[in-house]
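Supplementary notes for students who missed Thursday's class. We covered one full example, reproduced here. Read the sequence, then the structure, then the short commentary at the end.
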Amino acid sequence: MSAIKLLTTFDLFAFNWCLGSSRAPEMAKISRQVSRLGDGGLYLVLGISLALFEPAYGLIFFITGLIAYGFELPLYLVLKNTIKRDRPCDALPFEAYIVPSDKFSFPSGHSAAAFVFATLIAEYYPMFAGIAYSVAVLVGISRVLLGVHYPSDIAAGAILGVSSATLAIHFLPVIW
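Structure (token representation):
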């Protein structure tokens, strides 16, 4: 079996397992709220607040975040518009619990952004790393439970986010 077929088989199994439960509508209500954490506004507010009020690492955290999102966003857009994977709600006989913001699913932008933020938290505020990564994972899971992403979309978003943040962390000394 090819890697693509194996991945598709896994995605369909996991997606149907997550959304096949009679509790899926209840989980969607919670998932909507969790998903909103990944919309970006919270990251901006926290980043600006840290830059203004946390003298040890706040400003460097904010600048590194700008660089990381500067890497992540264009890569996300190129991947999403090159791969053009249909969302589960468009490819399967299933209606999503939310209206997605764009047409394609791979990779998950919410997951990428959440993992950028979690990786930056882990670098500059390691005592909060567990919480940050837990929230990032929950944001990713919420996107599957809402019916707008497959699990591999979430994994790809996580890889993109961690990679972008790591690149920014290592790139910062070059410009700072």
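Commentary. Residues 58-83 form the longest helix (26 residues). The helical segments are 3-19, 24-36, 41-53, 58-83, 88-91, 109-124, 129-145, 151-175. If anything here is unclear, bring it to office hours.
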